[in-house]
Design a protein that fits this description.
The protein is mainly alpha-helical. The protein has one domain. The chain has helices at residues 5-12, 14-26, 31-37, 43-53, 57-78. The two termini are 24 Å apart.
């Protein structure tokens, strides 16, 4: 049964997991705030505002892209889908 991209993202919880992991690595002093953000609606916007204040937004975009690619590649491998690079 095919899975949609949205379902894939939700399955891997990429937004909240990635944000939490990134916050822990790059913004350790803000880690509790980042974790709390994702308990409420509008979390991604608040997270990006924090990143802008900390001058870490581009680093986030790079991290997010790499994490998404890793998760997609893992999912493809688990589902026997061969990717053409």
């Amino acid at each position: 049964m095919p899975i949609s991209f949205k379902e894939l993202m939700e399955t891997y919880e990429l937004a909240s997991m990635g944000s939490s992991a990134y916050g822990e690595q790059v913004l350790p002093r803000d880690f509790d705030d980042v974790s709390d953000m994702f308990d409420r609606r509008g979390a991604y916007g608040r997270f990006k505002q924090l990143l802008t204040r900390r001058r870490a937004l581009q680093q986030w975009y790079d991290f997010e892209q790499q994490a998404t690619e890793r998760a997609l590649r893992e999912w493809c491998e688990l589902n026997s889908i061969v990717l053409a690079d």
